[in-house]
Amino acid sequence: MALGTILPSFPQSHFNFPVYHPNSRRNNIRTTFLARNSNGTQPSSANGYPTTITPLTESKPFSGKLEADVIVIGSGIAGLCCAGLLARYEQEVLVLESHDLPGGAAHSFEIKDYKFDSGPSLFSGLQSRGPQANPLAQVLDALGESLPCAKYDSWMVYVPEGKFLSRIGPTEFFKDLEKYAGPDAVREWQKLLDAILPISVAAMALPPLSIRGDLGVLSTAAARYAPSLLKSFAQMGPQGALGATKLLKPFSEIVDSLELKDPFIWNWVDLLSFLLAGVKSNGILSAEMVYMFAEWYKPGCSLEYPLQGSGAIVNALVRGMQKYGGRISLRSHVEKIVVENGRAIGVKLRSGQFVRAKKAVVSNASMWDTLDLLPKEVIPKSYQNSIKMTPQCESFMHLHLGFDAEGWGGSDGRSPPAALDRPFPCSEHVLSPSEFRLANLSCMHGIVHIGIHEDLGIHHIVVNDWLRGVDADQNVVLISVPSVLSPDLAPRGKHVLHAYLPGNVEGSGGALGPGFNREKCEVKLVGTPLTHQRFLRRNRGTYGPAIQAGKGIFPGHATPILQLFCCGDSTFPGIGVPAVAASGAIVANSLVSVSKHSQLLEAIGI
Which of 185, 277, 446, 564 has the fewest CB within 10 Å, making it most exposed? Predict the structure, then answer.
């Protein structure tokens, strides 16, 4: 799980148990599990997850210093970005994580030498630097952390029109469009690129790390980058400048304004939106999509996968934070946020201990879970109602497999099996409908069926029916085989597979079927939204608010409770790794002076 570089660990005198060292092999030896062993080493349900949650609900007494300038609740990407920058700003920061591993929905876990990503697997811009870099890359740069990555430029796509290897870049995709959608789609795609790429200059002219949540933003962002913004508007001309005014509106409005009619183009744009933020084009900010187009369809572009998986990102953020004196305590479950005279003054742990926050408490929990941490009597009724009325994004079903890549027969890892109704190789019993469909969708579209080929790609995306919509329940399957690019994720000659598709809590209860046989798959886990709710402390297992761009805005980071802030996918700019990294940075910037913020921007060259 670690990158292997030995860096100074934060002194253990601040902790009793457990201290997290991202480079220590002993982090793999634990008594608690997230999505854990299906091979009988612990009592488990048929889907491979533990039948008891006792280990996770037991909080160890916190014997370190019961005080910090800022307490961060939760160690998701946003929480770690916030904490890391605060430590860089010389603030005393403490991250309290309920789980036995950091990372939230982006953490990695290990079973029998198979290392799995629990969440995101599609990344770009992780190694970028400068004003136009990915916000996560900017935070890593500020913390002096590098992230080794494998580069690639394509994924396999299985859509109703056919299957093809989709390549990013300015020209390759046109060949697929010509073949599967026709000349009208080619013309409309070119029209879309011609409109979007100039707008991207404005979208990327303001570095996310320059933004803060107070009037200081006039200095750190507006004044600092006004010349580059004005220059970009001048370069775009009147038409481009008009398009730039739509950056905070739904991306579908840009597509509409171009009078694009080809159904494949609309479907493809919806699919890209879904891959980026879990919503269709009418629900995503144009700024997010424009940024993605600029990254994916420019000359020489590439996608990146962090070696050692998403856990490598988490480890890098933890290392960077600890390097500057930040602390993190695992299995430290926050029971309540303590409010006194209208101010958040600290938190109460499940162990009964009170940890004081001298300056602020930052919650990386969802808006619904944060609400549950607050005393009801101190929360304005309007604030409670606005959160309760906010719709939630549906969660996902997950399949994790560790399997032998040899001896499965077949010759083409990119071709579907001859018989689409062939049983899933690991299936011996009759599974519940949800579990059977999840397993067989992976099977039916060329990944774990009758052959593993040498040139098997890392990503495979399946769309069963465009008419149902990409966000329909169990309609789109996203399959990742990251061991193709990072072989250390699996034992020699073997692979890890992570497949996920939209699902909801109401339909997930029957997914806990009788399990798989052990003949071919050495590790197999089926996770449901209830799994996310249980292990990630996410209300209904959701990935964030379902706020449609143009019809609502993501909440800001301040709350009605003084000294209480929020970051993560429940806040601006929204859902997705770059967005949550930016939200964590915005909160950290807002908690320090404008001069310190400006000094950091100078130090990292943006």
Answer: 185
- Measured CA angle at 306 (ends 301, 312), to 5 deg: 150
Neighbouring-strand partners of residue 70? 93, 360
Contact 436, 429 (CB under 8 A): no
CA distance 443 to 416: 8
CA nearest neighbour of 23 among 140, 145, 151, 120:
145
Distance separating alpha carbons of residues 27 and 594, to the nearest angstrom: 38
Structure tokens at 168: 């990013």
Q: In the numeric block, which tokens belong to residue 175? A: 């060949």
Check residue 489 and give its pLDDT.
95
**Local structure of residue 13 (DSSP, 8 states):** G
**Which of 47-51, 416-420, 460-464, 580-584 has the lowest average pLDDT?**
416-420
How many C-alpha atoms does 593 have within 13 Å on its Cβ side? Answer: 4
How would residue 432 be classed by pLDDT, with cut points 50, 70 and 90?
very low
- Maximum CA extent, the chain: 69
3-state per-residue secondary structure call for 141-192: HHCCCCCCEEEECEEEEEECCEEEEEECCCCHHHHHHHHHCCHHHHHHHHHH
Tokens at residue 304, please? Answer: 């990146």
In angstroms, the Cα distances linking 229 to 224, 236, 603 are 10, 11, 21
**At residue 153, what are phi and psi to the nearest 5 degrees?**
-140, 20
Q: pLDDT grade, residue 529 (50/70/90)?
A: confident
Of 370, 464, 453, 363, the residue nearest 405 (C-alpha): 453
Angle between helices 77-88 and 577-590 (to 10 degrees): 40
Contact call for residues 147 and 169 (beta carbons, < 8 A)? no
Residue 14 has a pLDDT of: 29
* Res 537: pLDDT: 82
Q: Which residues, 6 or more positions from 352, have their beta carbon under 8 angstroms from its beta carbon?
A: none
Give the pLDDT score at 229: 66
